[in-house]
């Protein structure tokens, strides 16, 4: 599931996700009818509208295959939020079935496929932003451990790493000033660590922090973890260069 943000802003993240999974021997299917996971309406409190979207997701991804999502927040919606929406309905079987086979990408690679080390090199200093939706899941440690195994990659830790970046989906629209200030505070800590790249596994955070960075004129390129993994494979000639 590529997510709305891949479709609108981060098409290369979707491409990198497919490349990484295919390198690992995974046969990737892409249902053409997929849309949103339903989280924007869910977070805004419009559960009725969100249920319609989730029902479409359930219908679109019917079957038994794992549903792999390159976004912590969208993955969390599939295996947590969707169940909350339908908790009072008598038949939850299809929603539960989708929730039980939905994976965030890095969690799937490390804990689903058993990959513990990554080939190639990425000779850069990076700061990894662990988004709110990765906390309490296996995805954050999975991403960190894979990146640590890449030759030349240096992880630059920063202060108050557990603080939210301020995006929060609809929160950034309904409370833009608070959202922007939270993002600025986050970036102050990240920039102090002097990374060459800001890396995350959630594109909402990258979009939000990237907007603040670009508006401020700061030079701080952003990458999804899937792009780092893909670029490491390219460095080892395990994938052709774009």
From TrEMBL:
MF terms (GO), sorted A to Z? oxidoreductase activity
Origin superkingdom: Bacteria
Family annotation (InterPro entries): Cys_rich_dom
Q: Which Pfam families does the entry link to?
A: CCG (PF02754)
Q: Where is the Cysteine-rich domain?
A: 3-78, 126-209
List the record's Gene Ontology CC terms alphabetically.
Answer: cytosol
Under which name does UniProt file this protein? Answer: (Fe-S)-binding protein
Q: Which organism is it from?
A: Ruficoccus amylovorans
């Amino acid at each position: 599931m590529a997510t709305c943000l891949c479709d609108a802003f981060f098409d290369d993240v979707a491409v990198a996700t497919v490349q990484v999974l295919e390198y690992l021997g995974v046969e990737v299917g892409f249902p053409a009818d997929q849309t949103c996971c339903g989280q924007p309406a869910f977070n805004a409190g419009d559960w009725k509208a969100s249920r319609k979207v989730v029902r479409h997701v359930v219908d679109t991804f019917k079957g038994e295959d794992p549903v792999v999502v390159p976004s912590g927040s969208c993955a969390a919606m599939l295996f947590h939020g969707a169940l909350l929406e339908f908790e009072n309905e008598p038949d939850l079987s299809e929603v539960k079935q989708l929730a039980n086979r939905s994976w965030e990408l890095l969690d799937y690679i490390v804990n689903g496929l058993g990959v513990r080390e990554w080939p190639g090199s990425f000779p850069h200093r990076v700061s990894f932003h662990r988004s709110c939706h990765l906390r309490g899941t296996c995805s954050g440690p999975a991403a960190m451990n894979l990146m640590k195994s890449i030759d030349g990659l240096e992880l630059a830790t920063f202060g108050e790493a557990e603080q939210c970046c301020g995006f929060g989906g609809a929160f950034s629209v309904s409370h833009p000033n608070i959202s922007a200030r939270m993002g600025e505070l986050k970036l102050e800590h990240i920039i102090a660590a002097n990374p060459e790249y800001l890396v995350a596994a959630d594109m909402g955070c990258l979009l939000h922090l990237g907007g603040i960075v670009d508006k401020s004129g700061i030079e701080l390129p952003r990458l999804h973890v899937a792009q780092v993994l893909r670029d490491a494979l390219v460095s080892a000639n395990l994938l052709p260069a774009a």
